[in-house]
Amino acid sequence: MSPTPPPDVLISEVGPRDGLQSVARTMATADKIRWLDALHAASLREIEVGSFVPASLLPQLADTAALVRHALTLPGLTVMALVPNLRGAKAAIEAGVHKLTIPVSASAAHSLANVRKTREDMVAEVRSIVALRNDIAPNVKIEAGLSTAFGCTIQGEVPEDEVVWLATQVVEAGVDESGLSDTTGMANPAQVRRLFNKVRAAIGDKTGAAHMHNTRGLGLANCLAAYDVGVRTFDASLGGLGGCPYAPGASGNVVTEDLVFMFEAMGVRTGVDIAKLLAAREPLKAGLPGEPVYGMTPEAGLPKGFAQGAAHD
Amino acid sequence: MSPTPPPDVLISEVGPRDGLQSVARTMATADKIRWLDALHAASLREIEVGSFVPASLLPQLADTAALVRHALTLPGLTVMALVPNLRGAKAAIEAGVHKLTIPVSASAAHSLANVRKTREDMVAEVRSIVALRNDIAPNVKIEAGLSTAFGCTIQGEVPEDEVVWLATQVVEAGVDESGLSDTTGMANPAQVRRLFNKVRAAIGDKTGAAHMHNTRGLGLANCLAAYDVGVRTFDASLGGLGGCPYAPGASGNVVTEDLVFMFEAMGVRTGVDIAKLLAAREPLKAGLPGEPVYGMTPEAGLPKGFAQGAAHD
């Protein structure tokens, strides 16, 4: 058997964090573990398994440390967790994560409203997290995710120069990569190309993931636009978990299944096994009965004659 | 008041034909007229108002001639109708349409299954329609829409060389433009760019519209890909009418509202008034109560601070 070529893009599955935090009910830990196993079986190689925030704020994610412990047993998986601050980072590192992601608002108004910190204060927090990492766990990777990078429901437009400035700030603070998040579903493909190009001009290969939402139906078009300008890591959520895309104000994460289908159909290797990815919807549905699970490709089925670019075992 | 700049792209609304023919119920003629008026009020400048096929086949569209008569009273509108053959073309020309569109299957198997004609026979039919047009209505435009250009549910892959061959054949037969239709929702952005480039290399500026479906969620990404390689006419259906995108086998037309939002957000002028376009959903809903009407942008609303590129009166 000839060796499988390496993937062209990395699909970073955020459903267990971004998805489950948006669902009112709490999925049982055992069900989450079954879901993680199915996602791993589909050859997803980076999963954001949870968030180290106080359980009082997000009871749905209170079992994140236990999920990290389980995920660490899955071979070849980069185990990632969201941390909002130094305290969360300490807990995540102690739990053994491979990678931290820190949300940093590009919108001044959103930063104050969301974490009651200015952006400068958040950069200082990032610096503290980097210092902690350097001190106790130098192999742990740190990503800053610049939220509201394409627009903000509070202040409207977010000046592109401020996004670029913030990306340079977090890189100077020591993060390994800085991604751009369309938190509010306001991005368009021209803006995605322009802003990623500007950010890459400023921070080079520390430019990180595209985290797109499908709020207004442009999720895949925006991922395509990001791919066109060299982005190679894409956040997505199985079943689009993370808000009904048809509900006003919904977050509407890009659906992993549709994103993987788009890339594979284009001949862009994701390394993900589509058939097993579709199968990973079952433990999600079983763990959250009645919760809407989205995706056009799963409903329509794969096209006749569709052959996935990369061979899977 | 400064003059409005001309649109950068033409949005060709196909809902009254492609949409209504997929709905089991028949919309009353008076309701269709109210809907056409609303579409025209939104500054859509090309509408496919119906299809000249036997009423026994598509009773939903039996009133097409009456709709053409009404549409001809709407200033600035290109009134278009689908015709499957010479008989339909004669009826359409007699009704006074400005433009005919003739579906021609790129897939050999689909052509036989759908119209019981080989592709060569269909090209001969196109030639007869062109001769009729030249004879009795030289100002009427003729478009061939190459259906199943990106794949076929019967035969699977449709060789790109055959699509290019067919495009040259219909142009030699005398059509004014030849568009490419993703009838089955199998297109991907890389293929869209490649195939439109090949077709343009063969038939130049007779390359016509991109008619994309959203069956697997790639509709807007495919429209973006087509725009990237110079396509400037896009078919779309208000409310995505033309099949529930979540039902297996559904046609799932690209949603006009989302497509217009994408382009306008990118700064690509459509000439369409988004607010009035959203308002045009009401007569559609009123005329077909209970029928699913899709669209992410209408549900999410326009983003805070969104300003349409082109000024409207």
TrEMBL record, chains A, B:
Protein name (record): Hydroxymethylglutaryl-CoA lyase
Record-stated family: Belongs to the HMG-CoA lyase family.
GO biological process: ketone body biosynthetic process; L-leucine catabolic process
Keywords: Lyase, Metal-binding
Organism for this UniProt entry: Caenimonas aquaedulcis
UniProt xrefs under NCBIfam families: PRK05692.1
Keyword Lyase appears in the UniProt entry: yes
Pfam families in alphabetical order: HMGL-like
InterPro entries (alphabetical): Aldolase_TIM (IPR013785), HMGL (IPR043594), PYR_CT (IPR000891)
PROSITE patterns to which the protein is assigned, alphabetical: PYR_CT
Top-rank lineage group of the source organism: Bacteria
Keyword Nucleotide-binding attributed: no
GO molecular function: hydroxymethylglutaryl-CoA lyase activity; metal ion binding
Domain Pyruvate carboxyltransferase positions: 9-278
